[in-house]
Specification:
By secondary structure, the protein is mostly beta strands. The model has no long low-confidence stretch (mean pLDDT about 90).
Length: about 120
């Protein structure tokens, strides 16, 4: 991320010293505990938002962009790090905000956004 594109942490449980791990509690909506992704797309279109996360137990992740919400559910998987990917359509090139939260506690490591051509 850069000055135009950045991450925000809303009520995280813990942010590690070097910022390479952020822990979030399980929540029913983004106002309880969430990752905020602020992104200014270079062009309108579909983008892939790929998160590197760790979770324990069955977990449902939700991404909210404008009035739309996208959910992805994962069963019990014992892996150290996994990827959760959302496809989001940005109709304009103005600043866009996406909130991501989950119904169980989870750890966030990294985020990548790529345009789908």
């Amino acid at each position: 991320m850069n000055a135009e594109n950045y991450l925000g942490y809303f009520k995280p449980l813990n942010v590690m010293v070097f910022g390479d791990l952020v822990q979030f509690s399980g929540s029913k909506n983004y106002a309880d505990s969430s990752l905020l992704v602020s992104f200014k797309p270079p062009a309108a279109g579909k983008y892939s938002l790929d998160l590197s996360v760790r979770k324990s137990g069955p977990t449902t992740f939700t991404a909210i962009h404008e009035e739309n919400s996208i959910t992805q559910s994962f069963p019990q998987i014992n892996v150290e790090v996994m990827h959760v990917t959302f496809v989001i359509n940005f109709a304009e090139t103005s600043r866009q905000v996406i909130y991501i939260f989950a119904d169980q506690s989870w750890d966030f490591f990294d985020c990548e956004i790529s345009q789908i051509k």
